[in-house]
Specification:
Layout (H helix, E strand, L loop, with lengths): L3 E2 L12 H14 L14 E2 H10 L3 E2 L5 E2 L12 H11 L1
Antiparallel strand pairs: 1-2, 3-4
């Protein structure tokens, strides 16, 4: 599934239907329990188009785990967020 990626993920992977995935993501985010505190220690999964939009406009992005922020650090320096990974794996099923 190429819609969500870290900066080091395969950019040539095919993207899925964004409307369906956006609806599924919203449902998963509503169902997920999100705790504050540890988000800053991880690299998060974000839709590719939102990463580009943020880079151009400075608009904040929302990760699969629900964290909302304006990316400014190199994601390769941090481990993958376990909450993002769980949501991503559920979406792949």
């Amino acid at each position: 599934m190429g819609m969500f990626m870290r900066r080091d993920a395969d950019p040539g992977a095919p993207a899925g239907g964004t409307d369906v995935l956006d609806r599924e993501l919203e449902k998963l985010l509503e169902d997920a329990q999100i705790e504050d505190g540890d988000h800053e220690r991880f690299s998060h999964y974000v839709p590719k188009d939102k990463i580009l939009e943020s880079a151009v406009t400075g608009k904040p992005v929302r990760a699969l785990c629900g964290k909302k922020w304006t990316p400014s650090r190199d994601p390769e320096k941090f481990p993958v967020c376990p909450d993002c990974k769980r949501v991503y794996e559920r979406m792949r099923k």
